């Protein structure tokens, strides 16, 4: 090891991720110093409870409950506490005292990103957040740097491991949502309160971060349309399989062309929902708790980034990569590069989005019903691509009922949902079983 | 568009990649300026023949045959001529005159990388080469930055599109090597002289670049063990399929632990050869001319990067990403970050490498032959995992012959090849049909 300049590193949080970051910083100190061109001196670790057990073996004297004193004089501050406050206050304090900041805090960046990036820009500091979008998968640098000379058309991400694990097991084992969720909780794949995952909140935060980068546009979290997976049952999965699809919770970030004839601007759509995807699409083979981000760019074509989207030690890898980058920048000098949000494209509501759909209906099994349904779709500007009708042999339903699975051509979401309302009210439709978007082509 | 500082960009070469880079620089000038924080002024394009037809529509007045004058005063020089000279002279001239350099030239970097990086380091310039390792797939930044805090154990890359296309068609269509190669040439997927691709030279250059980055070690091209795919025939592919494998030309970059008991150092191995890979490994589903790089890291776990490994416009995306990075660095100030080669691990010859093997033999169909073969393997420290024996019903062979397909446990390459020599000389083996490594587990 060469003689290096020393950089003071302060760590806030020693939970699942922070305890691994601290352990790796200490264990690989020499190697990291060689790579960074500076020795990374861990000056302290702020926690709430000094006596709490830690997942890795760390020197007691590093721990403190006084985060603010730790930040003063640090060159690099790593925020791994999570939540909005006090994480935000500490991060701003770090930036304003001249440190570079590293964080994995997707909740914070998705809600207060612009304020934090502006503060960094004011003082020429840099905020690194590779771990905030897809855990260990390097996706921030590819979007921010590698694709900076290209134009991203669309991102489709499987960015939540818990929901992918649940949907994958439902698909491969024919199990029901509640059973798989209970098992996932027992195995530690899902939290005891699974809302953030299964209702798509976690994925929506990541979608906001990915879309901001890909489209050089500030994407507020409330502009992200969000639906979870709790309504996906065994029957929906089976019917998807039957049609050659698999269901994935997708974060879709899409560039929309200016409306033809209007002297308008491009816009973007950012949305999270369970969608059908063809079994031969690369995203269909992302199993278990793995994540993947599929990027369609104008020049580069289709790219996919695959790996672990969470996990303490996996996420620590991404955090440490950011720490090395921050150290190299300290050595090289110069100011930080501001987030590129100059495009600021308008974000359209979900009603303006165009996709394909699969509509599953239970209808009266009588002559003329298909014609009525087809007529309502056509009036609603929803064009039919495929229809499959099966008679349901269920005495409990009383009347003879048929199931219609309709695949549509691309339709506007607003037209589609108006049309589904009209179908539901038509008198011939007993039940709208499901309406799912089809992505990936 | 905001008012920006102007940076002078010189382009050397307007072939498959350069003509696309020039077109995109001009077409997206405003957008690129917003992202880079500087307007990128294309000051000229150096070519050999001013009158040659170009793939994109470019202003005639930009063209010149005087590359040297173009370089003088440029802030960013993009080298897309290919070959060693004069590319190397021009690149060094650019660096020494204070410009940042962008290149896609894998041949040059794999042979003269250290000299070029040293020159850049001397003057605080930066060399960007995202397009040199896997075309449009962002892999340089992930290895150099995102994984800088982790330890890469192994990389397995499908980094040559031509050979992947050939092997994939042989696999899916049962076609023979020569036929598919001829078709690939007709379709423009393979060059009229296919040596660089099918003999693994192109993949070896990329392997050297990837291993240098992953292991922070200078890897000279002649330290890369290289075998091509010309010996892979239909029978080999069929027998691989039968055993649940697919054959891919892999660039393998591997970290080897210090030998147990020796107070030694870790070492690395870099090799390119056709290998068997399980059909459920993510690399097995990389079809056609696509590329993918599979990375196993200690903390991050398994990652995969997938996309187009070549193509003029795809590669131009990676080049332009580098141009934007170079521009941002110019704006931000500071010196370039030197290549991290401080680990300088020893590179072991192929004989020291340990993998699994599949050995296919034609043996006399007589009692005791299997025992003899098993004895020779065991003496040679090659342990058998699976054996399959089939009788070959071929009158032309005269004597009754059986085919033995032996899967081994992990064995040392030197032991294996000595053992295969002994098998060949044993008197019971009629023919060593093939010896293939098995990778990916
Ligand atoms: N876990 C993952 O797989 C993963 C993946 C990607 C991103 N992330 C992100 O990484 C961040 C950290 O996640 P985590 O799973 O490591 O969280 P965690 O296990 O809950 O750990 C949080 C840590 O922060 C400390 N802390 C909380 N509030 C504090 C305060 N007011 N003052 C001082 N210390 C405080 C806690 O101290 P005590 O231990 O004393 O309570 C604990 O050590 C979050 O933003 C999360 O979204 C996590
Ligand atoms: N093509 C791909 O898909 C791909 C993918 C990854 C990386 N790369 C790398 O990118 C680089 C460029 O590849 P390419 O396919 O674009 O090559 P190319 O089509 O052969 O183009 C080479 C260009 O360089 C010019 N040139 C050659 N020697 C010159 C000299 N002495 N002075 C001035 N100009 C000279 C040529 O001028 P004229 O046109 O006047 O002859 C031509 O415009 C290579 O290093 C290659 O390995 C290519």
TrEMBL record, chains A, B:
Pathway: Amino-acid biosynthesis; L-threonine biosynthesis; L-threonine from L-aspartate: step 3/5; Amino-acid biosynthesis; L-methionine biosynthesis via de novo pathway; L-homoserine from L-aspartate: step 3/3
Residue stretches making up the ACT domain: 358-440
SUPFAM superfamilies linked to this entry: ACT-like, Glyceraldehyde-3-phosphate dehydrogenase-like, C-terminal domain, NAD(P)-binding Rossmann-fold domains
Database matches in InterPro entries: ACT-like_dom_sf, ACT_dom, Asp/hSer_DH_NAD-bd, HDH, HDH_cat, HDH_CS, NAD(P)-bd_dom_sf
GO molecular function: homoserine dehydrogenase activity
EC number(s) recorded for this UniProt protein: 1.1.1.3
Oxidoreductase in keyword set: yes
Cofactor: a metal cation
Pfam families per UniProt: ACT, Homoserine_dh, NAD_binding_3
Membrane-spanning ranges: none
Family: Belongs to the homoserine dehydrogenase family.
Function, in words: Catalyzes the conversion of L-aspartate-beta-semialdehyde (L-Asa) to L-homoserine (L-Hse), the third step in the biosynthesis of threonine and methionine from aspartate.
Name the UniProt record assigns to this protein: Homoserine dehydrogenase
Native organism: Microbacterium terregens
């Amino acid at each position: 090891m060469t003689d290096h300049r020393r950089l003071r590193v302060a760590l806030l949080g020693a939970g699942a991720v922070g305890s691994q970051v601290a352990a790796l910083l200490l264990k690989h100190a020499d190697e990291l110093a060689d790579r960074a061109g500076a020795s990374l001196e861990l000056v302290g670790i702020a926690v709430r409870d000094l006596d709490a057990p830690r997942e890795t073996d760390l020197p007691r004297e590093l721990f403190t409950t006084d985060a603010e004193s730790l930040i003063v004089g640090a060159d690099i501050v790593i925020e791994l506490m999570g939540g909005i406050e006090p994480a935000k206050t500490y991060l701003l304090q770090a930036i304003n005292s001249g440190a570079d900041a590293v964080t994995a805090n997707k909740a914070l960046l998705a809600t207060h990103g612009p304020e934090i990036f502006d503060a960094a820009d004011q003082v020429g500091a840099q905020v690194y957040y590779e771990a905030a979008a897809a855990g260990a998968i390097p996706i921030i640098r590819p979007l921010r740097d590698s694709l900076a000379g290209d134009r991203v058309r669309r991102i489709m991400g499987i960015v939540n491991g818990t929901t992918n694990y649940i949907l994958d097991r439902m698909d491969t084992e024919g199990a029901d949502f509640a059973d798989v969720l209970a098992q996932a909780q027992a195995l530690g794949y899902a939290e005891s309160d699974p809302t953030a995952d299964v209702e798509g909140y976690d994925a929506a935060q990541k979608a906001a971060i990915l879309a901001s980068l890909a489209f050089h546009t500030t994407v507020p979290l409330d502009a992200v349309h969000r639906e979870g997976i709790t309504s996906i049952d065994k029957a929906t999965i089976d019917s998807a399989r039957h049609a050659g699809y698999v269901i994935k919770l997708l974060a879709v970030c899409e560039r929309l062309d200016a409306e033809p004839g209007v002297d308008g601007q491009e816009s973007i759509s950012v949305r999270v929902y369970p969608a059908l995807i063809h079994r031969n699409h690369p995203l269909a083979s992302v199993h278990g708790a793995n994540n993947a981000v599929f990027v369609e760019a104008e020049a580069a074509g289709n790219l996919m980034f695959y790996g672990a989207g969470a996990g303490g030690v996996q996420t620590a890898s991404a955090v440490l990569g950011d720490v090395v980058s921050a150290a190299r920048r300290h050595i090289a000098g110069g100011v930080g590069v501001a987030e590129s949000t100059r495009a600021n494209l308008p974000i359209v509501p979900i009603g303006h989005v165009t996709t394909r759909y699969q509509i599953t209906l239970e209808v009266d099994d009588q002559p003329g019903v298909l014609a009525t349904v087809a007529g309502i779709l056509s009036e609603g500007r929803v064009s039919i691509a495929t229809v499959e009708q099966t008679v349901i042999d269920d005495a409990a339903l009383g009347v003879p009922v048929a199931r219609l699975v309709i695949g549509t051509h691309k339709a506007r979401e607003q037209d589609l949902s108006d049309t589904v309302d009209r179908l539901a009210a038509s008198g011939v439709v007993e039940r709208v079983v499901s309406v799912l978007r089809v992505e990936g082509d």
